[in-house]
Amino acid sequence: MTTTTIIVELGERSYPIHIGPGLLDRAGELIAPAMRGNRALVVTDDRVAPLYLERVERSLVAAGVTPMHTVLPAGEKTKDFGHLQSLLDAMLEARTERGVMVVALGGGVIGDLTGFAAAILLRGVDFVQIPTTLLSQVDSSVGGKTGINTRHGKNLIGAFHQPRLVLADIDTLDTLDRRQVLAGYAEVVKYGLIDDAPFFGWLETNAARLIDGDLDARRHAVAVSCRAKARIVAADEREGGVRALLNLGHTFGHALEAETGFSDEMLHGEAVAIGMVMAFRLSARLGLAAPDDAGRLVRHLDALGLPSGLPGRREWDVDRLLSHMQGDKKVKDGKVTFVLARGIGQSFLTRDVPEAELAALLAEMARESAP
Ligand code: GLY
Question: What spacing in Å lies between the alpha carbon of 145 and ligand 1's midpoint?
């Protein structure tokens, strides 16, 4: 199977995203031409390291690159100040000079943390993303958003720092459990909902085989998602406007994640799935979109086993959800920016959402969730 290559067009900081199977074994050959020196520092976690670290290092050696590595604990808690500091120390101890390529091998946590460390070390060193989860392949590894979490919220400290290249090896998705694949898939659905109704239609027909491991379907879905993201990032790298469309479902989703303590009770992608339903239902309530667009989205998520409403495991407090939304970093002058839609594939940004309607929707969904 061939590799699909998509370019993120950012002038002299442009970079390729390579998508296909078998790319871990070609990491050295693909990374070496982008290197200024001949040493690479691979940053990964203790879940991914036993699966893929040796293969990546072997391929670097075959390309004449000397690899070093640092292995961090797996999990969202690693994306904090403490681990940032230990990673920066490890980088300095490894005498990372500007000539050393930093390689982030793992999911969104490793990519965001490593990218941020690369952004601030020596005021910026080169790095490569090798995303190994569906979520990081279709979203977080592309576009240069890097950062860490604090007790005030997720990703509130960070920097824009573009990678030199992204290698999305779709074979790595085979070692994810179904829940992780589904959570990443929510971000794939997002691209159909934002501005690509035909892609949403394709997903309605093909998502089940994609989830079940079909390589062609996976490569197509990752490529369409990355192409959409590359186009949006090229148009608005620092989120002055259109890039905010990528936050469809996220303002709601972050509130749900905050309420569930950013824990395994609700994965980011699951929160985004519910958040996208909220965005479509709110759009219908406000008379902007036909109610059946929300229905179509709900039917699609339900068919795959992704959540489409608030889980009945807990009682949801509408005021607390509203206050989490106010804490979101997309708030400007006290007003939350929402991504709403006029239909599937027709999303837009607005800060004009009557709080009463928002509260009414949340109350309705909380009632529906009651066990
Ligand atoms: N994940 C949203 C963005 O990269 O802008």
Answer: 7
How does 126-147 read in b/e, with b if 16+ C-beta sit within 10 Å? bbbbbbbbbbbbbbbbbbbbbb
- Ramachandran category for residue 39: left, alpha or beta (phi over 0 → left; psi -120 to 50 → alpha): beta
CATH topology classification for 178-369: Dehydroquinate synthase-like, alpha domain (1.20.1090)
Residue whose CA lies nearest to ligand 1 atom number 2: 246
pLDDT, tens only, 211-233? 999 999 999 999 999 999 999 99
The string of pLDDT tens digits covering residues 204-214 is 999 999 999 99
All CATH 3.40.50.1970 domain ranges in the chain, comma separated: 4-175
Q: pLDDT over 90 for what percent of the chain?
A: 89
Token digits of residue 123: 């005021």
Q: What is the model's pLDDT at position 274?
A: 98
**pLDDT over 70, % of the chain:** 98
Please, what sign has the CA dihedral across residues 121, 124, 128, 133? positive
| Structure tokens belonging to residue 145 | 């958003």
pTM value?
A: 0.95
Distance CA 347, CA 341 (A): 4
Question: What's phi and psi for 190, nearest 5 deg?
Answer: -50, -45
Atom of ligand 1 nearest to the CA of 247: 2
CA angle 84, 85, 89 (to 5 degrees): 115
Nearest 5°: phi and psi at 130?
-120, 85
Q: Which CATH number fits domain 4-175: 3.40.50.1970, 3.30.70.1060, 3.40.50.300, 3.30.870.10?
A: 3.40.50.1970
CB 94 within 8 A of CB 40: no
Q: How far is the CA of 245 from the centre of ligand 1 (A)?
A: 9
Rg from Cα positions in the chain: 20
List, by residue range, all CATH 1.20.1090.10 domains of the chain. Answer: 178-369
Where in the sequence numbering do the catalytic residues fall?
A: 123, 145, 187, 229, 239, 243, 247, 250, 254, 268
- Of ligand 1's atoms, which has the minimum distance to the CA of residue 246? 2
Question: What does DSSP say about strands 331-332 and 335-336: parallel, antiparallel, or unpaired?
Answer: antiparallel
